[in-house]
Amino acid sequence: SPPPEFFPVAHLRDAINTVLDQDGAKALAYEVSEGYLPLRATIRDYVSALGIRCSPDHVLITGGTQQGIDLVVQALLSEGDLLLTESPTYLGIIDIARTRRVQIHGIPMDDDGLRLDILENYILDRHPRLIYVMPSFQNPSGRVMPLHRRRQLINMCAEYHVPILEDGIYHEFRFEGESIAPLKAVDEQGIVIHVSGFTKNLLPGLRIGYVICDGVHYERLVRVKHAADISTPSLNQRAIHLMLERGVLAQQLERNNRELRRRRDIALAAAARHLPPGSRWSQPQGGLYLWGERPKSGPTAAELFISAIQTGVAYAIGNVFFTNGAGSYHMRINYGIQRPAEIEEGFKRLGRAWRDLAVDYAEMDKIPLL
Amino acid sequence: SPPPEFFPVAHLRDAINTVLDQDGAKALAYEVSEGYLPLRATIRDYVSALGIRCSPDHVLITGGTQQGIDLVVQALLSEGDLLLTESPTYLGIIDIARTRRVQIHGIPMDDDGLRLDILENYILDRHPRLIYVMPSFQNPSGRVMPLHRRRQLINMCAEYHVPILEDGIYHEFRFEGESIAPLKAVDEQGIVIHVSGFTKNLLPGLRIGYVICDGVHYERLVRVKHAADISTPSLNQRAIHLMLERGVLAQQLERNNRELRRRRDIALAAAARHLPPGSRWSQPQGGLYLWGERPKSGPTAAELFISAIQTGVAYAIGNVFFTNGAGSYHMRINYGIQRPAEIEEGFKRLGRAWRDLAVDYAEMDKIPLL
């Protein structure tokens, strides 16, 4: 979640009051399941700047990005079908697979993302129905898939007719380095379904996301959306639409990224200063998270978590991002949500908790195994 | 959908501005999946006036009533499981069953609702996982299940361990006669899950509904909600909460019901004046709809619909409320959404379209069958 002090509260208030002035009761009636048409057109314009070409008829408004992902899973998969993801992957897709009774399997990554050699073997053996990927600033690893691998992934999936669900939620959270086109912008075969939203970059609590896909899936998705909740709140859609029209998002992205870069630098410096040596940390060029692996000689991330909480600092335990129990020595730290002084203090406390526990572990190592 | 001229737009504007003044960014952050706690407490108070006793820990906020129904279906049923409903039933539950790949079967009704003798046979033969009912002002039939049958239904379902999903959305849309307690208020065995919302009685476009159930289902429902969309928009929850605290709903119900009664009377008088004899119409004591059956000697509801649309008047064709193709001669007319002058004019046009078609049918009857 983005830091609350970033939220454009005054812009939102103004947008809502303008919408109620202009549209009155119309802004509060049922909206069509596809979503408020002017918002769909504005999203078309917005993603066109990222290289994605689509018509408003291929944009479906959802109750946040999570709902977009869930609707796609529900539209394309039956119970027991296989869903592939990166490993580690976004917690929310694991939640969806478990509650929807869908099989989920993670494909290992290297520094460039999903390992395509492993993916191909898996496709041939197991016939997955969908591949979910987050190619830019992957949550939790922060990795970015380079353009050549994006192309290879699309070609491979097109060859085997496996749709790709691209989660683009962090795509514009880049604060250094060159932007790489979303999969959907590179896709000429209509194999990519793109989901994203205005929850991370603008206002989480308004819950406005979207799905962009070609006609073959669109109608089915609209039916699933209609069954799920009829439509996304019309007032929220209109308020976001007006904020986009007024350029609030562009300002917001610029401001967010400037501040996120600063926080990342503070986090990396604090990690180097306060944490015991031997751990490896990602050096993300964007996004909200540091992803680290700690030395296996010490406590697991879950064991450290208990001590850390007692000193008033928290992080996400690596395990939760894996579907196979891996990640015991991984941790994800959200530097985006904390103010700079808290980041520094947090790492200090984490380092202390870690050292205290590491001492116990060092002593345990000396105890002969029976 | 309720008539837009009923929407308390000024109250909403005031509530949103107050929430933003008081809570600022907090009103725009992620909300917990269970929902905004003060709203859950207010709903506890609200339903307690209807005889339902629960704690805020048993109230889950949803994105409208439709989402509440969908979450319960997803939480309790797997693909291929059997869901029972009244026949005819709410269109939205048919949508859900089809998109979730759940079997659906409608149990015939009499004037007092669901036929329990048929239900019992069906339970014994087919082991349904859930029964969905709308005991007050059922959509589309407008029927109300009397208290004795509510008790019998609960006892039967408790005996066979079949949970009941009660849709209470029209419960307070009563403009004459005595109110009958919701199933959930009568249920002492924890077999009833209650869904309702503030979409029909207050503001459709804010999409705030709720589920009330006992602990056995609650945790699972929260997990499904979290996977579905993380949470319902926090701003919308806080605005509705403030409006409830300020007594807007109570005023609104009183005003709605006064006006709905007037519209029903106009609709019944207009139906008697303008429509050909031989059709039977419901005489609802509440809700938004007239439900009618036309003589089978004339055109079907679908055939009449085409002519009606050409004269600028629409209704819902009976078929869509049945899962077995029945209802060809039924129609549902929404008198709630139209202003009185439009109701009168609408029936006039419908009567004309009907008579024109009926003439053709009368002539067809004279053509000998080959």
Total individual domains of chain A: 2
Main-sheet strand order of chain A equals 1-8-7-6-5-2-3-4
CATH superfamily of the largest domain in chain A: Type I PLP-dependent aspartate aminotransferase-like (Major domain)
Largest sheet of chain A: 8 strands, mixed
Helix count of chain A equals: 12
Oligomer: homodimer
* Percent of residues in beta strands of chain A: 5-15%
Main CATH class of the largest domain in chain A: Alpha Beta
- Uncertain runs of chain A: none
Structure, described:
- The structure is a homodimer of 370-residue chains.
- Chain A has helices at residues 9-23, 37-48, 64-76, 91-99, 116-126, 147-160, 183-186, 215-229, 234-245, 248-274, 301-310, 340-366; strands spanning 59-62, 82-87, 103-110, 113-114, 130-133, 164-167, 192-197, 209-212, 280-281, 289-293, 316-317, 330-334.
- The N and C termini of chain A lie far apart (47 Å).
- Chain A contains twelve helices and twelve strands.
- The model of chain A has no long low-confidence stretch (mean pLDDT 94).
- In chain A, helix 1 (9-23) crosses helix 9 (234-245), helix 3 (64-76) packs across helix 8 and helix 10 (248-274) packs parallel to helix 12.
- Chain A has two domains: 4-246, Type I PLP-dependent aspartate aminotransferase-like (Major domain) (Aspartate Aminotransferase, domain 2), CATH 3.40.640.10; 260-363, Alpha-Beta Complex (Aspartate Aminotransferase, domain 1).
- An eight-stranded mixed sheet of chain A has the order 1-8-7-6-5-2-3-4, with helices on both faces.
- Chain A is globular and about 65 Å long.
- Chain A is of the alpha/beta class and 370 residues long.
- In chain A, 46% of the residues lie in helices and 14% in strands.
- At the A-B interface, helix 1, helix 3, helix 4, helix 8 and helix 9 of A face helix 1, helix 3, helix 4, helix 8 and helix 9 of B.
